[in-house]
Amino acid sequence: MNLIMLGPPGAGKGTQAQRLTQTLNMVQLSTGDMLREAMANETEIGKQAKPIYDRGELVSDEIIVDLISERLDTLDRDQGFILDGVPRNAAQADAVDKMLSEKGLTLDFVIELDVDDDQLVARVTGRYTCAKCGTGYHDTFQKPAVDGVCDTCGGTEFKRRSDDNEDALRARLAVYHEKTAPLRAYYGDKGILHKIDGMAAVEAVSGALDDILGAS
Ligand code: AMP
Q1: Coil vs helix vs strand at 203
Q2: Is the CB of 8 under 6 A from ligand 1?
Q3: Which residues contact 83 (CB under 8 A, 6 or more apart)?
Q4: 58 CA → ligand 1 middle, Å
Q5: Distances (CA, A) of 19 to 101, 141, 178, 206
Q6: Which residue is closest in CA terms to ligand 1's atom 8?
Q7: Which residue, 5, 125, 133, 174, could crosslink 13 as a Cys pair with Cβ 3.0–4.6 Å?
Q8: CATH of domain 3-116+165-213
Q9: Does residue 20 come out as left (phi exceeding 0), alpha (psi in the -120 to 50 range) or beta?
Q10: Using CA atoms, how far apart are residues 141 and 36, in angstroms rounded to an integer?
Q11: 51 alpha carbon to ligand 1 midpoint, in Å?
């Protein structure tokens, strides 16, 4: 089973994708994570992407399509994958379709997580992660039990994404509404789009997603 997680920044795509890697042994292919890794390692792609990423704009389709294609080639054929953060525009949707058909792969579900912009701003500008184990926290909604100490690993260093500030987020939301949201119609026409209320509690979103996937 292969799927796409569609939704604006902060909608919970990564949270759900990560959960499915545990519950259904799927592979999460997050283009944002791939770019953050490339930037941390200061690769050519990372250096090229950094200023664009920090402004909240889209990096080139070519870079994205190459990143995804390489990763797909390393997967076990019987392991399902989740495209998280890709496609982001019509050209990427076409490229993904073409790539999957060339590789003999199919797309079973496109899951749209729907969340109001104001809620996204509150979620994204307050989020941070443990630098050691990656557990996610939030200034208001999800603080560690002991201030400054990670609940999971006891780590005391935390990090925030360089694009999780209000200016970059507003730019990312504008890009989402203009370029990514129209993909709803594209996948709706193919009959594989399913919408979930991403404003609900995480457990409710997880339940709704599992129902769609037939995994409950
Ligand atoms: P994300 O982690 O999915 O929120 O992505 C963070 C940033 O990485 C985006 O604002 C873009 O700058 C870049 N990015 C991630 N995925 C894509 C993509 N499919 N196409 C273009 N840029 C992307």
Answers
A1: helix
A2: no
A3: 2, 3, 4, 5, 29, 68, 96
A4: 6
A5: 27, 19, 29, 8
A6: 32
A7: 5
A8: 3.40.50.300
A9: alpha
A10: 24
A11: 12
Q: What's the rounded Cα separation, in Å, for the pair 135 and 158?
A: 9
Q: Which two tokens stand for residue 205?
A: 């979103």
Instruction: Supply the residues annotated as catalytic.
Output: 13, 88, 127, 161, 172
CA-proximal residue: ligand 1, atom 14 (nearest): 32
Asked if residue 180 has its Cβ within 6 Å of ligand 1, the reply is no
The model's pTM is 0.94
Write down the domain spans for the chain: 3-116+165-213, 127-163
Q: Listing from the earlier edge strand, what are the strands of the sheet with 81-84?
A: 27-30, 81-84, 3-6, 109-114, 193-197
Over residues 185-194, the mean pLDDT reads 97
Q: In whole numbers, what is the pLDDT of the chain averaged over residues?
A: 96
Rounded to 5°, the CA angle 184-186-190 comes to 110
Query: What are the residues whose beta carbons fall under 8 Å from the beta carbon of 8, sequence distance 6 or more?
Result: 115, 117, 120, 172, 173, 176, 177, 180
Atom index in ligand 1 nearest the CA of residue 9 equals: 4
Residue 111: its pLDDT value, please? 98
Expressed in angstroms, the distance from the first to the final Cα of the chain is: 15
Tokens representing residue 36 in the block: 């953050």
Q: Region 17-39: what's the mean pLDDT?
A: 96
